[in-house]
Design goal:
This protein has about 400 residues and is of the alpha/beta class. It has 13 helices and 17 strands. Among the domains are: about 140 residues, Rossmann fold, CATH 3.40.50.150; about 120 residues, Rossmann fold.
């Protein structure tokens, strides 16, 4: 296996989760009569550039299909985060009506709607038609293609270089990360800025977040790795924000290496130190991650089996991709968790890939009054607990499996 960035030979395992279907390949009722495509779910770390990455078994077109089921705008806390970001970055870069903001993986217009509200020109790049159509209904222009150097060249030729390029939770989803970031270099104006948010590998290791591993996530990113990749394609990282989203994320700010003039922010060095002190610049730490996954799997299974023997009712909330990784690695099926509640219109009426647990509306909770509600998207557990506060009336308790089993 060759590193997707530096092409060095990669042999050091990071985490092996056996086999799983694509985590966003939600099933229709008709598809229940067909076989699913399962593939090994293995991650490795490059000993040369320290990029953690999946072993590839799928082409992007097989993972990000036209009826992709993930819609960003279903989380209110995420919408507030994006609205605050737009306000901050518009002021920081002094964006106005003549500026152009381009978002890569713009999904359902969850973020660009706030750019549009401020009278700033915007363009979304989104390869999945189902989400792009929702954004277009909001009046947002969307190009339904995968982004890379070819599309960047086309946009620049059309006279559409960007003042700001945004990529939230997309950098990990890119199979050819060199071409993707190389396209960003081409698309930026001389004084343009790009920002990318992604789950921080350091937090993933610290808090046992193995369920964020799935086939659609080609890379698991540190500042160390991103800085090296950016430098290779003519970009420099000049600032970093540490965020609470997705269990601990980074927002990196990049500019063109040849023309960018923004000074380096103080937090850049602080994050560098944190990663170095944690050992991310040495191979040893990466080999220890596998051991935590089995313990989490066993704890979840023991809990579910104990409740089944006791005759307790269990449900799950949030048909998140991370939940699919957890359920499939743990071998959980509908005999232990009979249904998952979700609010996303793209998931309701479908079934979880692999486990084939049905995804239902929230009314089912009120009707069946489960004793335990397992929150699969643990990164927004507080938001979900607030939404489901009424379940406390019948004595329901909440459960999360990561970073360790917790019942409250």
């Amino acid at each position: 296996m060759k590193c997707r960035h530096c092409a060095a030979e990669v042999t050091q395992s990071f985490c092996d989760l056996a086999c799983a279907p694509p985590s966003n390949a939600y099933l229709s009722e008709k598809q229940l009569d067909s076989a699913e495509i399962w593939a090994p779910l293995r991650t490795f770390v490059c000993g040369n550039c320290f990029l953690v990455q999946t072993q590839d078994f799928h082409a992007p077109g097989e993972l990000f299909v036209t009826d992709y089921g993930y819609f960003s705008a279903t989380s209110q806390s995420w919408l507030k985060h994006c609205e605050a970001y737009v306000s901050m970055i518009a002021d920081r870069l002094q964006l106005g009506s003549t500026s152009l903001v381009v978002e890569l993986a713009s999904n359902d217009g969850y973020l660009l709607q706030y750019v549009k509200e401020r009278g700033i020109q915007c363009l979304g790049i989104e390869p999945t038609l189902s989400t792009a159509e929702v954004a277009r209904a909001k009046g947002i222009e969307v190009v339904t293609e995968f982004f890379g150097t070819n599309l960047a060249q086309q946009l620049v030729a059309q006279g559409r270089p960007a003042d700001l390029v945004i990529g939230n939770n997309v950098l990990a989803h890119v199979p050819d990360i060199n071409d993707f970031l190389g396209g960003v270099t081409m698309l930026l104006k001389e004084d343009g800025v790009a920002t990318f948010e992604f789950p921080h590998l350091l937090q993933m290791i610290r808090f046992n977040q193995f369920d964020t591993i799935y086939h659609e996530h080609y890379s698991y990113l540190s500042l160390l790795a991103v800085e090296r990749i950016a430098r290779k394609v003519g970009l420099t990282v000049f600032d970093v924000d540490e965020l609470h989203t997705h269990g601990g994320s980074l927002r990196v700010y990049l500019q063109r290496a040849d023309t960018g003039k923004r000074p380096q922010g103080n937090n850049f060095a602080a994050v560098q130190r944190s990663e170095a002190e944690a050992g991310l610049e040495a191979i040893a730490i990466y080999g220890k991650f596998q051991s935590v996954t089995s313990g989490i799997k066993i704890a979840l299974l023991e809990f579910l089996l104990e409740q089944r023997r006791a005759g307790k009712k269990v449900a799950a909330y949030g048909a998140a991709a991370k939940g699919n990784t957890l359920l499939n690695f743990s071998g959980v099926r509908s005999d232990l968790i009979p249904y998952v509640v979700d609010r996303s219109p793209g998931k309701l009426g479908r079934y979880m890939p692999g486990s084939r647990i049905p995804i239902v509306e929230e009314d089912r909770l009120r009707a069946e009054r489960p004793d335990y509600i397992i929150i699969l998207p643990w990164n927004i557990a507080d938001e979900i607990e607030g939404q489901l506060a009424y379940a406390r009336e019948w004595g329901a308790r909440f459960v999360r499996a990561i970073p360790e089993l917790r019942v409250w």
